[in-house]
Amino acid sequence: MPQAAAVEMRGITKRFAGLLANDAVDFDLASGEIHALLGENGAGKSTLMKILYGFYQPDAGEIRLRGTPVRFRSPRDALGRGLGMVFQQFMLVPSLSVTENVLLSLPRDGVRLHHRAAARRVGGLASRYGLAVDPTARVWQLSVGEQQRVEVLKLLARGAEILILDEPTSVLTPQEVRDLFATLRGLAGEGRAIVIITHKLSEVIAVADRVTVLRDGRNAGTVSAGDTTPRALARMMVGRETFDQARRDAIAPGSVMLEVEALRALGDRGVPALRGVSLSVRAGEILGVAGVAGNGQRELGEAVAGLRRATGGAVRIDGADCTHASARAVRERGVGHVPEDRLGTGVAPSLSVADNLLLTGYRAPQFGRGPLLDRRAMLSHARGLIAEFGIRTAGPEAPVRTLSGGNLQRLILARELATRPRLILAFHPTRGLDVGGTEAVHRLLLDRRRAGAAILLISEDLDEILLLSDRIAVLHGGELAGTVETGTVTMEALGLMMAGVRPADAGGGSGP
User: Fold this and answer.
1) Which residue positions in the chain have pLDDT lower than 50?
2) Cβ atoms of residues 275 and 290 within 8 Å
3) pLDDT digits over 160-216, tens only?
4) What is the side-by-side order of every strand in the sheet holding 19-30?
5) Which helix (H) or strand (E) holds 150?
6) pLDDT value for 145
7) Nearest to 266 by CA among 226, 313, 224, 229
C-alpha cells in the first residue's frame, strides 16, 4: 500500500524562450506506489521529471523529498539522494560495452575494473529483470530497443529508491511485460516510489496505483487507476475520445510490391542476424513484423531499405531486383522509409525543419534554380507540411534539434508520406508518441493502405501490430517463426511465437 509522500512538487513553473512548458504544476509521489504520468507530446511531462531529476531548474515552485525542501542543481545531486531516471533520448557511450555503461552510472569504489566479474553481475541483473542484452556488447552494436534496456539496467543497478521509467515496456513481449510489472510491484512493495511515463493506456490500468495527466503544461487531474478507463484518460489528455476510431477496412490486396526471399545478413557484430527470412507484402496490405528487439527486425528493415548489405537471398521491389541497391536507388523505386533511429538516421539535427523536410526531395525541379535551391519554395513546402501533419515547432527555420521526440517523428512521417510512395517501410512509427499522435499516424498509414500502398510495419507494440496489420510475421533468432493472419491469432499466441514457439503450438493459424 502507498505510504508517506516521497516527492511533493508544488507550483512548478518552467519557461523556455517564451514557451511555457510547466504552468504551476502540482505533483505528488508516494513511497510504495507506482504513479503513471500521461500527456500529449509537448504537454510538459519530460520537463517536469527533468526538473525533479535536477536536469532543469524551475523558474518557480518548490520540491520536497520525504518532507524536506530540496533543490537539485544537477542529476548528480538527485542520484546522491536516491533518485534515478531513464531519459527518452538515451545517455549512453556508444564505444563502451553494456557493462561499462552500467558501471559508469555507479558510485566509484576504486580505479580497477574487474570486467569479467562485472559482466557476470550485469548479466545476472539483466536476467533477473527479463531485460535480455549481452553484457559484453558495445552499445553502438545494439538496436534502439536494446539500448533502452541498458538504460533501465543502469537505473536498477543504481538501487535508486525513487525510480522514473520512460516507456520501459516498449521492447518486451506480453509475457515479459507481466514479469516486469510483477517486479515493479515487488519494488513498490519494498517501499520504493516509481513513476512510469507511457503512451500505452492499458498498461496504466494494469500496473499503476494513480495517474496524473498533464495537458498544455498544466495538471489536468490525478485519478486512481482503479477508478478510471483508457477512454476517460484519453479524454483528459486530448479533450476527446480517440479509441476505436482507426479502422482497417477489408481490402482485396493487389500485386506483390515487396518480396524478400531467403534473405541473409550479418549484424553489426559480424554474426548472422538474418537466417533465410522470406516474406512478401502486396499493394493495399500491411504486413506487421513482430519480435523482441535484437531478433533481426532492424537488420531486415535496413536490408530492404538499402542500408545493409545482404549476404544471401533476394529483395525484389515491384518485381525489380533491389538486393544490392543503394538507399537512393530504393527510394527511386517509389519507397518511403520511416527509420527506427530518429536522430541517428532520420534527421540532420543541425539543419532546420525546412531543410529536413526536403532531405529526400531536394532534387525535384520545383525546389531548384540551376545548382541552387529555391528557399522561398522550400519554406512554403515546409509550412504546408507543418500544418498538415501538426508538427509543433517555432517555424520552418527552427533547428530540428529543438523538436520533441514526438514532433521529430511527425516531421519524418510528413517527409516520407508527402511523396505518396507505393511501398512504405515504417519502422516503429509511433514510438514515443502520445495517444493523439499515435492515432494520427495510424490514420495516415491506413489511408495510404486504402490508396493502394504496400506497408512493411516493424513495431514492438503488439497492440499496434494487431490493430494495423493484415498479416503478421514473427521473427525469432533471425529466423521467421511464422506468419499468421491477424484475425486468427491472439496477443498471447504472438508473445509465445516471439519467444520461439511455433505457430501451431502457440495457438496461431498459419498465413500465406
Assistant:
1) 1, 111, 243-244, 510-512
2) no
3) 899 998 777 765 666 667 777 887 887 888 888 999 987 778 788 889 999 999 988
4) 19-30, 5-16, 60-65, 68-70
5) helix 144-158
6) 66
7) 313
Name the H helices within 105-140: 115-128
Please, are residues 342 and 408 in contact by the beta-carbon 8 Å criterion? yes
CA atoms of 320 and 314, how far apart (whole Å)? 10
Residue 189 pLDDT: 87
Residues 6 or more apart in contact with residue 241 via CB below 8 angstroms: 231, 234, 235
Residues 373 and 354: their CA atoms lie apart, in Å, by: 12
Which cell is 67 given? 518532507
Beta strands 286-290; 471-476: pairing state: parallel
H helices, E strands: number in the chain: 17, 22
Grid coordinates standing for 3?
A: 505510504
What is the C-alpha to C-alpha distance for residues 55 and 235, in angstroms, rounded to an integer? 30
Over 255-322, what HEC string results? CEEEEEEEEEEECCCCCEEEEEEEEEEECCCEEEEECCCCCCHHHHHHHHHCCCCEEEEEEEECCEEC
H helices present in 264-315, as ranges: 297-305
Closest CA relative to residue 456, chosen from 416, 419, 487, 424: 424
